[in-house]
Amino acid sequence: RETRLNMADLEMDIVRRTVTRGGRRIDLRPKEYALLEYLMRNSDRPVTRSLIIEHVWDIHFDSISNVVEVHINSLRHKIDREFAPPLIHTVRGVGYMLTDKPP
Q: What letters, b where the CB count within 10 A reaches 16 and e where it falls short, cover 55-70?
């Protein structure tokens, strides 16, 4: 089983539950960590908002809440703001994707 997930200079240590980008530690709240782990396990593939809600929040319906958007924005602030290239992308009409290539 994988103990580390990587995308470009972003690294997640599953055992220690730590995240670094460019060698710098990034502190995440539990749901941000779970969301990033889900995106990293599905890297280079678009994932829908419904799939994110189902896997990260364990809710089996798509509510009208903006909880996914709020957490994506928070992750972008922590993961992408001071680094290049941006890794979290919106795929219009689909959802979100973690990739180091332009979608």
A: bbbeeeeeeeeebbee
